[in-house]
Amino acid sequence: MNIEGFNDIESLPIGATIILSIGIDFNDKTQAALFDISFDGRQLSSPLSIACHVGELIEQKFLNQKEFNKNLARLRGMNEITVDIDLSEVQMKKLNFTTIQTKIVQCANVSSVPSSSDDSIIYR
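^ that's the sequence the OP posted. Answer follows.
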C-alpha cells in the first residue's frame, strides 16, 4: 500500500480550515490504510483508518467470448448464470432490447460480450 501525503501544515489558526488531498494506492488489497496524525509534536492516541471501497478494487476489463472461456478456470470470482427466455413474436415486438441491455448492465454491473451465437446475448 502506498500513501501519497501532503506537506506539513505549519500553522492553522483557530476556526480556520485547509483542504488537502491524500492519494492512497491500495494495491488490490482490502485492508484499511492506517496512518498517524500529529500536532504540536504530539501524536493522536489512535491512528486514522481509511477503508477502500470495494468498487475501487474492481477494474473493468473487456473480454470476448474466447478470452473469457480461456481465463474462466484461472480467474477466481468469475461466475456465469445462463437463462433462456421464451417469447412469442408479439412479445418480441413489444420489447426494446436496448433498454433491457442498459438495465441489465446497470443493475448487475456486467458488460455485454460479443457472442458467437446470433440468437443470444452474453453478459459478463
